[in-house]
């Protein structure tokens, strides 16, 4: 059979034949048992009924003789005639249904005795009765017991013999029917069991014949999907499955050919991609999601070359560097040529470091890089820390250079997180300039504090009337002067704080704080301001979130800035909410409003200094978000913003947890 359809048809027909055989055998047994029952009913039951009826007719004839004895001759003759006809009718049935041995002799004897008895009782009834002048009752009784009763008893005994022989025959037939029924049950059970076994064997055989090759085909197809093209199906059948197997082998062979033909093209593309990475002037470190280094570009290799003294990790020896396979910058997988030998994607010798073996743990700079990778992976967004305290110091040729980290998560085409790429921007030259600027701002702001304080006191004294009465115009001018002095004082305070944060002079006093307590306090501080605009402040922070390591004053400043901005830019009757959730040992806080939103062109620089959206009301210094960013980063967190014009803004920042947590609300609520 060279067709799968024919094979399936054959298997189904085999099962149908098995079912027909089982059903036919069951019908045969039922018919046989029915015949046995019919024999019992047809052969013996009629004779038994006839015997009973003859006995009844005989007894009625005897009763007719009794009626005649007591003088009721008419009734006696009438009953005798009726019962005699009934006897003859039933005798005819019994005589025509002789089935058992000895039954014919009994029938003949009954015939003889019944004729004699009938002749005697006719003579007895045809004489004159007592009322007609005939013999008296005593004489008739004597005649009855002498001539009629003995033949009656003898005839009745033969009728009992006929009844008994048929009853015995019915018992024998019943036993035979019982045996037939038992044999039918056993044989039917055997046939059913045999049919079931054959059906199971047929089903298993043909299912295995069809399913096993399909399972092999599915397994080989799965391996090909995983990139293993060295697959072959050894199925020699001529049906559709065999055709499918041969086509599969053809497909696998062509895929292997395509793989071999595309290898060098893919290798060239990988070389181009790696050339792009190597052409980047700044050092680039590629890590997996766990922080293991998988790739370095040439700038990073020069920075962390074997034997170079740096604080990222221990120097490599030549043997260790020579055994490092070259890794792909994105996937981190070693490259192999078609012959199975390891090759360098860049075409360089094995002296190229490639990034394997570089240890980041155990040093200040390495820990900062690992922290940036962890932040980028956990937050799943780019991380760029701007504060000077977050710079990575690395010695280059004996001189210490400052590098700013910019870390971005890496994803494949399907969106799966592969790791992170970190760019080290050498900001040594700009750090000095920034330090001078910060020192100047710090000194200038400090010098301005005392004159500003004196100016504010003087304005307050004038407004209170210590220098005499003032008219309305003078008071209005003093109010404007006081507001400007206050704004200038706030700006100097913000500049001083920002300078402290940039220089690292501001030390965070970290302690364990409950997120719910932070949110509740912030909500209560800004509730009066929100109620003036009928804004609903919502606290969506759950109480079972883990405690965070934070500086209470710093986090108070951050939330105050975010909440005041949210309330200021929300319309009357709006809503401002604080949410928090935990993920990867970090608690994410977000402040969300439904106000004006931030134009897209401002999102990239919103955390810069003196950044204010044009045309927006507000009396801030433009330094609040810059300070908030430095404060969050100083506590080991990150801050970001999402906004669309007219749809509000959501500011999100993270704080590290005190330890591993076991909470219900482990991610952002829907």
Oligomer: single chain
Task: Tell me about the largest β-sheet.
Answer: 6 strands, antiparallel
Shape: elongated
Number of strands: 13
Structural class: alpha+beta
Distance between the termini: 60 Å
- Secondary-structure element order, as H and E? HHHHHEEHHHEEEEHHEHEEHEEHHEE
Output the number of helix runs: 14
Characterization of this structure:
- It contains 14 helices and 13 strands.
- The chain is α+β, with helices and mostly antiparallel strands and 670 residues long.
How would the blueprint of this fold be written?
Blueprint: H1 4-69, H2 73-95, H3 103-126, H4 137-225, H5 240-279, E1 284-288, E2 293-296, H6 298-303, H7 318-322, H8 364-379, E3 383-384, E4 392-396, E5 399-411, E6 417-426, H9 428-463, H10 472-503, E7 511-513, H11 515-532, E8 536-540, E9 548-550, H12 552-568, E10 575-583, E11 586-593, H13 600-603, H14 624-634, E12 639-643, E13 649-656
Parallel strand pairs: 8-10
Antiparallel strand pairs: 1-2, 1-6, 3-5, 4-5, 5-6, 7-9, 10-11, 11-13, 12-13
Helix pairs in contact: 1-2, 1-4, 2-3, 3-4, 4-5, 9-10, 10-14, 11-12, 12-14
């Amino acid at each position: 059979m060279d067709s799968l359809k024919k094979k399936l048809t054959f298997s189904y027909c085999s099962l149908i034949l098995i079912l027909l055989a089982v059903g036919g055998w069951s019908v045969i047994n039922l018919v046989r048992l029915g015949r046995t029952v019919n024999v019992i009913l047809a052969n013996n039951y009629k004779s038994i009924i006839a015997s009973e009826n003859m006995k009844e007719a005989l007894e009625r004839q005897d009763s007719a003789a009794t009626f005649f004895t007591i003088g009721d001759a008419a009734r006696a003759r009438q009953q005798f005639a009726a019962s005699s006809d009934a006897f003859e009718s039933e005798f005819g049935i019994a005589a025509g249904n002789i089935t058992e041995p000895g039954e014919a002799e009994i029938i003949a004897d009954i015939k003889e005795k019944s004729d004699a008895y009938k002749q005697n009782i006719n003579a007895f009834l045809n004489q004159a009765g007592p009322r007609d002048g005939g013999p008296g009752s005593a004489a008739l009784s004597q005649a009855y017991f002498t001539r009629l009763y003995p033949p009656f008893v003898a005839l009745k005994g033969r009728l009992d013999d006929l009844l008994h022989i048929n009853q015995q025959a019915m018992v024998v037939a019943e036993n035979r029917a019982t045996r037939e029924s038992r044999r039918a049950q056993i044989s039917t059970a055997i046939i059913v069991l045999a049919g079931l076994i054959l059906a199971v064997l047929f089903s298993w055989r043909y299912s295995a014949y069809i399913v096993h090759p399909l399972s092999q085909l599915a397994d080989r197809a799965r391996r090909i999907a995983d990139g293993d093209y060295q697959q072959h199906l050894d199925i020699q059948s001529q049906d559709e499955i065999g055709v499918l197997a041969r086509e599969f082998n053809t497909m696998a062979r062509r895929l292997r050919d395509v793989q071999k033909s595309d290898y060098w093209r893919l290798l060239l593309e990988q070389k181009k991609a790696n050339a792009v990475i190597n052409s980047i002037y700044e050092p680039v470190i590629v890590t997996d999601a766990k922080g293991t280094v998988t790739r370095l570009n040439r700038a990073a290799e020069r920075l962390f070359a074997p034997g170079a003294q740096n604080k990222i990790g221990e120097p490599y020896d030549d043997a260790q560097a020579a055994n490092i396979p070259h890794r792909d910058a994105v996937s981190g997988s070693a490259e192999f040529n078609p012959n199975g030998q390891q090759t360098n994607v860049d075409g360089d010798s094995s002296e190229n470091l490639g990034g394997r073996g570089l240890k980041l743990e155990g040093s200040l700079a390495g820990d900062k890089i690992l922290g940036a990778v962890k932040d980028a992976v956990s937050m799943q967004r780019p991380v760029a820390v701007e504060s000077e305290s977050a710079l990575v110091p690395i010695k280059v040729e004996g001189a210490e250079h400052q590098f700013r980290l910019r870390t971005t998560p890496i994803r494949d085409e399907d969106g799966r997180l592969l790791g992170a790429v970190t760019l080290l921007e050498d900001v040594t030259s700009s750090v000095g300039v920034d330090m001078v600027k910060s020192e100047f701002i710090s000194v200038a702001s400090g010098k301005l504090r005392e004159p500003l304080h004196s100016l504010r006191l003087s304005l307050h004294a004038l407004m209170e009337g210590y220098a005499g009465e003032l008219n309305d115009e003078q008071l209005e001018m003093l109010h404007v002067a006081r507001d400007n002095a206050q704004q200038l004082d706030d700006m100097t305070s913000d500049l001083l704080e920002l300078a402290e944060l940039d220089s690292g002079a501001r030390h965070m006093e970290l302690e364990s704080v409950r997120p719910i307590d932070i949110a509740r306090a912030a909500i209560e501080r800004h509730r009066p301001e929100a109620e003036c605009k009928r804004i609903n402040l919502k606290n969506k922070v759950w109480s079972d979130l883990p405690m965070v390591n934070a500086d209470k004053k710093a986090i108070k400043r951050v939330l105050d800035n975010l909440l005041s901005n949210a309330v200021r830019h929300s319309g009357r009757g709006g809503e401002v909410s604080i949410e928090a959730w935990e993920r990867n040992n970090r608690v994410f806080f977000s402040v969300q409003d439904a106000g004006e939103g931030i134009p897209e062109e401002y999102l990239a620089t919103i955390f810069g200094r003196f950044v204010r959206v044009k045309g927006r009301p507000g009396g801030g210094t433009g330094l609040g978000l810059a300070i908030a960013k430095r404060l969050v980063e100083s506590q080991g967190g990150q801050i970001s913003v999402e906004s669309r014009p007219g749809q509000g803004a959501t500011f999100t920042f993270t704080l590290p947890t005190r330890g591993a947590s076991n909470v219900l609300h482990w991610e952002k609520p829907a």
